[in-house]
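This section describes the prediction task in plain terms. A model, or a person checking by hand, is given the sequence of a single protein chain and must write out its three-dimensional structure as a string of tokens. No templates, partner chains or ligands are provided. The sample shown here is typical of the held-out split.
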Amino acid sequence: MMSWRRRPGPGPARLWGLCCLVLGCWPGALGCPASCECSSWRIWCTKSSPGIASFPVPQRSAEGDNVTEIYIANQRNLESINDNEVGFYVGLKNLTVVDSGLRFVSRHAFVKNMNLQYINLSRNKLSSLSKKPFRHLGLSDLILVDNPFKCSCEIMWIKKFHETKFSTETQDLYCIDDNNKRTALLDMKVPNCDLPSANLSNYNITVVEGKSITLYCDTTGGPPPNVSWVVTNLVSNHESDTNKNPASLTIKNVSSMDSGLSISCVAENIVGEDQVSAELTVFFAPNITFIESPTPDHHWCIPFTVKGNPKPTLQWFYEGAVLNESEYICTKIHVINQSEYHGCLQLDNPTHLNNGAYTLLAKNDYGEDEKRVDAHFMSVPGDGSGPILDPDVYEYETTPNDLGDATNNSNQITSTDVSNKENEDSITVYVVVGIAALVCTGLVITLIILKFGRHSKFGMKVHGEVKGVGLVDQIWLSLQDCDNEGPSSVISNDDDSASPLHHISNGSNTPSSSEGGPDAVIIGMTKIPVIENPQYFGITNSQLKPDTFVHHIKRHNIVLKRELGEGAFGKVFLAECYNLCPEQGKILVAVKTLKDASDNARKDFHREAELLTNLQHEHIVKFYGVCVEGDPLIMVFEYMKHGDLNKFLRAHGPDAGLMAEGNRPAELTQSQMLHIAQQIASGMVYLASQHFVHRDLATRNCLVGENLLVKIGDFGMSRDVYSTDYYRV
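The expected answer:
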């Protein structure tokens, strides 16, 4: 006798997976109608039973963002497309509603669907169709065949649209006239049905600040068009009258903030629309909105900002006398924004003779403005006051030259009589010659030690001593454990830390491999997670983490202050960046511009931006993002206050006191120099762990910030390499 036994049924997880498969893996499967098949990117509704009466709506609005195509057919109960029904699908590109009962399309149906390119409403019951739902869309195809349109002025725009977009053979469009006869749409003639036209009384409006002006807009068309004024961002008080023809716009007490603004008049009827624009130019007196004490960057700079229209003439005064500009002292305008000018008075290596009061006078035909600032570049030699900058924060003095005397001569200011200093100059010459002799002697001794003290290029550590390492290296290594000055110890006291760049722990000191994941590089007792290099591992953009995408910054959020220097790609500016950090309204940043607009330069620009976005380390210059709105292309980096390491080391070397004419800055100690080297080494170890080689590592490409913080920058020559590639010297 055969017995039946019930087999175990599928588990809940399998049942849920089967349901997802049947419903087409729609993210909100419970919201997909029975007549439709839904996926994450497409909705397909072709089943006439039970049918749908409105557009499918996702349960969560975010689920519709990735839908790019909606296809609806055989839905006799679908009679309208209402406001916001399609608005859930902001990424929609293709919309098809065919063989259905569609009779009405709302004027605001596609307000949120800016990506729509293709619309097919064929074989429906449309008798009329307004242009307003489609006027803001950049459609490539609008198919409306086999709809019972009534011949009227309201569908005249369809005729105009297809005359410009398509050939007459593309679509056979018809309408039904008053005699119930079919007429080809291209042959339809409706009296008093024309496109509107608008004309302005003045297309270049000029007005003085504080005055009032009236602009007129004359319109024609049938039916008579509705008129509106587009005055977005207009600050001045204004009022309009659109009930008469011509329509008028009166601007009262015009503000200088409206200079350069565009004002538009729009005429619209059921056939179409026309828009004309005029530019508003406001003349106003100069206003110096910003001036600041000089700052030492690439050159000494007294930054300022001046507003005025027409462009004001600028004149500087030094201690009340006219300052005649030269190649050493000159005014530079870095950024022009409408009627606002950002620049600085640039001084090339000023001395104590240039200290004093500087006054800027800005003048044009409508008035003038002046502001004064006190400048102190260098203390008088021998007065005992020391350098003007605090050596504890590792600032450096700009090397002086004869600019002070030249400036005073050009400004008719009496210079100090140098004849009284002949004896002092003679003593200085003897001191310099003596120091030079000592340096030469020390150099010869050093060369002798290097010649006879070194035996091989590489060595191995055996029984506490370093074999194959020269005498100088052994002395240097033996001194490290005795140096406790400055930052935390650079070299470990462990036996395995004889090399200052030793960073791989061995034996029992190695951390557990479970910490930090499998893709971690051990540096000392710290692990650095490896960021996947998209070029090295072949990962597509869709597989990258969202936080590795290049951040785009709006151009209006960047305000350039002054020029810092010039590199291989282009000029570098100090700038203020708004809305970059939530906790700060604005921060100082360094902005690098692309001067070469060629395709290769742009490719290098985008490659470097992607590279920098993926490189995130405490000793790599922080990269905030790019600005690609127009030219030039811009990269935004963090601002390192003390500039490049090359100048910083020169300013704090043994001979810095001679270069600064007695104002001796703080000399870096051995501990501090080791701290600098350790930071650079840490950054390079991180680059190697990410499979990148800098290829241009030099002190000029390292930057110094607050508290002796050093970071590696300028990746213009960087390339990604395989981990098996050799590093060439």
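For orientation: The longest strand covers residues 273-291.
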